[in-house]
Structure formats: structure tokens, C-alpha cells
TrEMBL record:
<feature type="transmembrane region" description="Helical">
    <location>
        <begin position="165"/>
        <end position="182"/>
    </location>
</feature>
<feature type="domain" description="ABC transporter">
    <location>
        <begin position="348"/>
        <end position="582"/>
    </location>
</feature>
<dbReference type="InterPro" id="IPR027417">
    <property type="entry name" value="P-loop_NTPase"/>
</dbReference>
<feature type="transmembrane region" description="Helical">
    <location>
        <begin position="58"/>
        <end position="77"/>
    </location>
</feature>
<keyword id="KW-0472">Membrane</keyword>
<feature type="transmembrane region" description="Helical">
    <location>
        <begin position="139"/>
        <end position="159"/>
    </location>
</feature>
<dbReference type="GO" id="GO:0005886">
    <property type="term" value="C:plasma membrane"/>
</dbReference>
<feature type="transmembrane region" description="Helical">
    <location>
        <begin position="23"/>
        <end position="52"/>
    </location>
</feature>
<dbReference type="InterPro" id="IPR003439">
    <property type="entry name" value="ABC_transporter-like_ATP-bd"/>
</dbReference>
<feature type="transmembrane region" description="Helical">
    <location>
        <begin position="251"/>
        <end position="274"/>
    </location>
</feature>
<dbReference type="InterPro" id="IPR011527">
    <property type="entry name" value="ABC1_TM_dom"/>
</dbReference>
<keyword id="KW-0812">Transmembrane</keyword>
<keyword id="KW-1133">Transmembrane helix</keyword>
<dbReference type="GO" id="GO:0140359">
    <property type="term" value="F:ABC-type transporter activity"/>
</dbReference>
<dbReference type="InterPro" id="IPR039421">
    <property type="entry name" value="Type_1_exporter"/>
</dbReference>
<keyword id="KW-0067">ATP-binding</keyword>
<feature type="domain" description="ABC transmembrane type-1">
    <location>
        <begin position="129"/>
        <end position="312"/>
    </location>
</feature>
């Protein structure tokens, strides 16, 4: 367990962002405060007796006041320290929360879809850093409280040993016995609490069934009333029996602790009184040691309470760090790669690519081969579930091929590098709760001239008009005065976002799914005008993009069932003919597909 505790301390220190020394000084100062308060209060008590047992002088009274002032000052400083470190601990939890988000965003996309892994992440969040009762929130405060109480008890025992070996012996025996009794009581109480919770679960079920309208007819029909009454009565008696056991355990534990306290007080205080009567110690020393021993009970109670909470926090933190620890390799391997400086279009080739999820035996894509020439516009069409989006996730490096390879300009590139080459426009467009400019640049350096050019090309400046600017905040999530854009305006904003990124190729994955046929056609024409010098892939189950495409690839169940130009496929592919004929009338009539 000690190894685990040290490991967790080192793990938390990594997230202190240069404030490591503060988290080291914090326990030292808290220990000094607790110990100093115990000793100073004992000294003050002894000094009061000394002052009033002798001739009272102003100098002695001033010194007494200084001692009292010092306790007040130390208490004030400790409160300031406690407040400061409380917030530092909050910031620590926030940093770890941010690290969790970073780990989630940088781990392989396939892992983010795995239910088991995401369940592990949610468990880690819950136990590790979800709230003020989580492992991270409780770890340092409870550890420091344990250390301060423990050190104070050791020092008191050591100071008492100067009088007689009996004092440290009786203090050690009674304190350790009290801790063992508290440990046993806590274990028994947790077991009985779980037992009574299970019984309440059954009892609540019986009561719910007994008084529900749905079950009342069945209970009457089969004369089940007496049986149900017996079950409720038996369940209630069992609950009462277990709760009596809990009460009995509590009483026994309380009496045992009080007995140990009584034994310690009788022996320690009795021996102190005897030594004072026999003049073995002065009245001032008697007062000092008497006051010192009065702190033992509170320190023992605090030590047990804080140690129990600390061990719980340590166990929670061990669970809570599991997800982040496993994701560190992805964080370290995903160093930022600058966007490509060359804006030339690229060629793309899928060579014998197959893909299936790790927990599945069925291939979504199998032995897929396709080459897209540099500057070519390809329409990737097919019904929902044909494998179109999966292919694009493979292309952009979010998924890793089970077999085969993907070539860019005839070469294999790693996933991070491939992602810099593409700019995308998706079906589900995310409008961030920030300014229009930030929604377009997405964290990239704002280039004013480039931004103005994109505003002009996409006609976004017309949408903004005279009332809105690039600094206008969108959505009302954060700013109540934020602007809500229409569906068409959002599509234009997403087009501007796609064009702002330096990219060699554009991927448009169902970007017009929420638009009617006429607006969809207009959007694709705008895209064609702005992206005519790039490699472009249109993904859709609708056919608005075919007139803009050099080639059309029809997919079904992860396989190419037709490939060629529109004219070629109309003549050679029955599947394409049926799909085209079923949709073309909507575009002619201007209806929504």
C-alpha cells in the first residue's frame, strides 16, 4: 500500500504546473500548525499558573498576551494557507480533468467508440476527479490531516516519556487499541449497511408491488394478499434485526472507546496528580502536561477519521488515474504537426484496404482498391451504411486499416500527417460558443487578409450584413446575447471553416443533408467554384454532387459496385440507373430528398 501511496503522490505532483514546492510545503506548515497549537496552548496554561502563582508584573502579562497573540496569528495564517491550498487543489483537479479530455481526443478514434474503454473512462472520472468527494479532491487534504494528527500524537508521547515510561506505554497501548477498535467497527458497519440496503431494496419492491394499480388485480385474483403481507412483515423484521445489530455495534464500540479513554485518563492524570502531590513535578509542569494530554482524544478521533477518508481517496485515485495512465502513450505520440505549406492537390490510393472493428468478426471494408488522381473530384455515393464514412475515417487516419495501405502521392504517411492534408465539411456541423472568427479559424492564427477573402468568396459578408461582425458571439450557451444562425447560414460558416485551413484536399461528408434540393445544389456549385484546384471527395447518399464530379464511385456493403463518369454509369450500371432515376425527379421538382 505504501508503494501505491507514493506512486499516487508522484502522479499528482506531475499536474501541479510548477507549484510542486507549494504542495511539499503545505503538509509541513500544517503539521507545524497542529503541533504548535497543541504545545503553545499547553505552554500558555502553564504560564498563566506561573504568573498568578508569583508576583504579577506587567512584563509577564505582556509576554502572556504575546503568547495568546501568537496563537491567533498562527491560526489566521493557517486559515489563509488552507484557503490558498484549497483552490490549488481545485486547480489540480481541473488540470487532471483537462488531461482526461486531452487523452480522449488524442486516443485512436476506434478506441473512443469502444464501450468497454469508455466505461473505464467514466469509472475513472467518477472515482478520480468528478467532484469534491473524489480521489483527487480528498487525497492531499486527508493525507495532510493524517500526518498532522499522527505527528502531534508521537510528539506528545515523546514529551510525556520524560516524566516516566508509564506515560508513553499507556498512551501507545490505548491509542493503538482505539484505532483497531475503530477499524473493526467500520468494517462491521460497512458490511451491515450493505446488508440493510439489500433488505430495503427487497422491502421497497414488495411495498411497490403491493400498492401498485398494475399488480392489485393479480394479487386479488390469485389470493396473494396474505403471502404478500407475510413477505413485507418478514422483510421489515429482518431490517429491524440488522439495524439493531448496527446500533449494538455502535454502542459496544462507543463504550469500548470510552473505556480506553477512561483508562488512559485515570492512569495519565492520576499519575500526574500523584507526581504533583509528591512534588516530583512543579505545579506549572503539571498544568503543561495535563493540558497536553487533553488533546490526545481529539487527535485520535481525527487520525482515525482522516486516515479512513485518505485510504478511501487513495483507492479511488488508483482507479481514477487508470484511464489517463493508459492514454499517456497517445498524448506523447501526438505531437503537433504543422499544416502543410504546399497547397498542391494530392493523389490518393486505397490499396487492398480491409477494415473491421477489433471486437467484431465482420469486415466493413474488404480488399478495397481505389485511386483518386491529383485534382480529381470524386463523388462517393451509396445508401446509408454502405461504408462511405468509414472509408473517409480511414483516409484521415481516425481509423487504422486492418489490412492494406493508403498512399498519398504514392507514399505511406502516418495518421497525424495525413490529417493535416485534409479539410472537411461534415453532416453534423458543430457551431462553437465563441466568435464567428474563432468558429472559422478553430485555434489557428488569424490572417486578416485571408479571412476577408474567404468572407467575400463564400458571401459570408452578405450574411453578416451591417449588424454582425467577426467578433459577434454565436449560440446562447455562454453568452445570452449570442446569435443563432439559420441552417443555411451555418452551412456557409462551415464552408468558410473548411476553406480557411491550408489543405491539399477537401472532404465533404453529407454537408447538405439538412438542406432542400435547391439550396443543396446551390451549395455544391459554390463549393465547385472555390475548390476547383483541389482534390475533392463528395460523400453522399444523394446525387446533387454528381454534376460536379469527374468520377463517381457507387458503394454497397463496403465494395465498389460501379465506377466511372455519369454518362458511363447510366449506360453500364443498373444499380446506378435505379438510384439516379429515384432521386432525379426531386431535384427537377425542387423538393426535399
Amino acid at each position: 500500500m505504501l508503494k501505491q501511496i507514493i506512486s499516487n503522490i508522484n502522479w499528482l505532483i506531475k499536474f501541479t504546473n510548477g507549484k510542486k514546492n507549494e504542495f511539499i510545503i503545505w503538509p509541513l506548515l500544517t503539521i507545524l500548525y497542529t503541533l504548535g497549537t497543541v504545545i503553545l496552548t499547553s505552554i500558555i496554561s502553564a504560564y498563566v499558573v506561573y504568573v498568578f502563582s508569583n508576583t504579577v508584573s506587567y512584563l509577564r502579562l505582556v509576554f502572556l498576551l504575546l503568547l495568546c497573540f501568537s496563537i491567533g496569528l498562527i491560526s489566521w495564517l493557517n486559515n489563509r494557507l488552507h484557503t490558498k491550498m484549497f483552490w490549488e487543489n481545485v486547480y489540480l483537479r481541473m488540470d487532471i480533468t483537462a488531461r482526461d479530455a486531452q487523452a480522449f481526443l488524442l486516443e485512436p478514434y476506434e478506441l473512443s467508440l469502444d464501450e468497454g474503454r469508455q466505461e473505464m473512462r467514466q469509472t475513472s472520472i467518477h472515482y478520480g476527479f468528478d467532484d469534491d468527494n473524489s480521489g483527487v479532491a480528498m487525497f492531499f487534504p486527508e493525507l495532510i490531516a493524517c500526518l498532522s494528527s499522527g505527528v502531534s500524537l508521537v510528539v506528545i508521547t515523546f514529551l510525556m516519556s520524560h516524566l516516566s515510561w508509564i506515560f508513553p506505554t499507556i498512551i501507545s497501548i490505548t491509542v493503538l487499541s482505539a484505532l483497531l477498535l475503530m477499524r473493526k467497527y467500520t468494517k462491521d458497519r460497512n458490511y451491515l449497511n450493505q446488508k440493510v440496503e439489500d433488505l430495503y431494496l427487497k422491502n421497497n419492491y414488495y411495498n411497490r408491488i403491493a400498492f401498485s394499480d398494475e399488480a392489485s388485480q393479480t394479487i386479488r385474483l390469485y389470493n396473494y394478499v396474505s403471502t404478500m403481507k407475510e413477505k413485507i412483515s418478514n422483510s421489515s423484521r429482518k431490517i429491524e434485526k440488522v439495524e439493531n445489530q448496527i446500533l449494538k455495534k455502535r454502542l459496544i464500540n462507543t463504550l469500548s472507546l470510552q473505556t480506553l479513554t477512561l483508562i488512559r485518563m485515570v492512569v495519565v492524570y492520576g499519575l500526574l496528580i500523584w507526581m504533583a502531590i509528591k512534588s516530583r513535578i512543579s505545579i506549572e509542569s503539571f498544568t503543561f502536561y495535563f493540558t497536553l494530554c487533553a488533546n490526545i482524544e481529539l487527535l485520535v478521533t481525527n487520525l482515525w477519521k482522516n486516515s479512513r477518508l485518505f485510504l478511501s481517496a487513495n483507492a479511488d485515485l488508483t482507479i481514477g488515474r487508470k484511464y489517463i495512465d493508459q492514454s499517456d502513450k497517445y498524448i506523447n505520440s501526438n505531437k503537433k504537426i504543422e499544416e502543410t505549406l504546399s497547397l498542391n492537390p494530392i493523389s490518393i490510393e486505397f490499396s487492398h484496404v480491409s477494415f473491421k472493428y477489433s471486437n467484431s468478426c465482420q469486415y466493413i471494408i474488404e480488399d478495397f482498391n481505389l485511386k483518386i488522381e491529383s485534382g480529381e473530384h470524386l463523388a462517393l455515393i451509396g445508401k446509408n451504411g454502405a461504408g462511405k464514412s468509414t472509408l473517409m475515417l480511414l483516409l484521415m487516419g481516425y481509423l487504422k486499416p486492418t489490412a492494406g495501405k493508403i498512399l498519398i502521392n504514392g507514399k505511406v504517411e502516418n495518421s497525424a500527417r495525413r490529417r493535416t492534408r485534409f479539410s472537411t465539411m461534415f453532416q453534423d456541423n458543430i457551431v462553437l460558443a465563441t466568435t464567428i472568427t474563432n468558429n472559422i479559424t478553430i485555434g489557428r492564427r488569424t490572417q486578416t487578409d485571408k479571412l476577408k477573402d474567404i468572407y467575400r468568396k463564400t458571401e459570408l459578408s452578405k450574411i453578416l450584413g451591417n449588424t454582425l461582425t467577426g467578433e459577434t458571439v454565436l449560440t446562447k450557451y455562454i453568452n445570452p446575447s449570442g446569435i443563432e444562425l439559420s441552417v443555411g447560414e451555418i452551412e456557409t460558416l462551415m464552408l468558410a471553416r473548411m476553406l480557411y485551413k491550408n489543405a491539399n484536399a477537401y472532404i465533404l461528408d453529407e454537408p447538405s443533408a439538412s438542406l432542400d434540393a435547391i439550396r443543396e445544389n446551390e451549395l455544391y456549385k459554390t463549393i465547385e467554384e472555390l475548390a476547383n484546384k483541389k482534390t475533392v471527395i463528395f460523400i453522399s447518399h444523394r446525387l446533387a454532387s454528381i454534376s460536379l464530379s469527374d468520377k463517381i464511385c457507387l458503394l454497397d456493403a463496403g465494395k465498389i459496385v460501379a465506377y466511372g463518369t455519369h454518362d458511363e454509369l447510366i449506360k453500364s450500371s443498373n444499380d446506378y440507373q435505379q438510384l439516379y432515376q429515384s432521386q432525379s425527379k426531386y431535384y427537377q421538382e425542387g423538393e426535399v430528398l
